[in-house]
Amino acid sequence: MMSEWYGMGFTGFLLMALVLSTAIALIVIAVRDAGGRPESDSVSLHQSPSDVLKARYARGEIGRDEFEQMRRDLVA
Description:
Blueprint: H1 9-33, H2 49-59, H3 64-75
């Protein structure tokens, strides 16, 4: 009975293929996520506080009054 994959039968073969493909998919996902891709919104170490403030205002994270107050605080 060598044609039945050493006694596993077709169902056993499908189960083994499912487990193996799931393990490979999890490894691929883990490696891809561990790549340490920088986020587009992350603050660069080379940006000045004023540049960060301007970027937050441009993205709409803070309003005009808050922007002006923070800008005055940075200048002082």
